Description:
Layout: E1 4-11, H1 16-27, H2 29-34, E2 38-42, H3 50-59, E3 65-68, E4 73-74, E5 80-83, H4 89-99, E6 109-113, H5 124-128, E7 136-139, E8 142-148, E9 154-159
Antiparallel strand pairs: 1-2, 1-8, 3-7, 4-5, 5-6, 8-9
Amino acid sequence: MDNIRRQLSLFLPEPERSQLDVIRQKYDPKQQAIIPAHVTLCRDEELEPWAALEERLVSLKSIEITFVLGAPTLIEAGGVLVPMANSSTAFDDLRHRLLGDRCTRQIPHITLLHPRHAAGKEHAYEAISHEVLPTSVTLTEISLIEQVNGGIWNILSRYPSGAHELL
Length: 167
């Protein structure tokens, strides 16, 4: 039986996506190969019941979330992420609008080195901290993505509807 995962993600636009994907390719080519630079909006377990969530997604007229990117941060599991340095109110409000009472706090970030790929890369954080990162990014669309058996994440839908091709 296939292992299928789905999530809602905010893919970075160009040129910021390419700038960060060059860094991700350098330090975590496995993760970069299966998904471009993004911010996870809703995880797999949060997508149920799908019908109600999809109604909320379809009703979106537009979204615009601007992240001021902080300095790379080493997390306990050995990964490296770029946190949002400004208020996450717009991100939090969007999550609450989609998930309602089921909404829990999630810290928005972009992963540069996934913890599951961090073994043997103890010096990556120091090197990453010297990389030149974009200072901000504005996200304007949500993608429903799916991964089958640990493979490449594929875009199934974009919201608001009519969003342009990303991948």
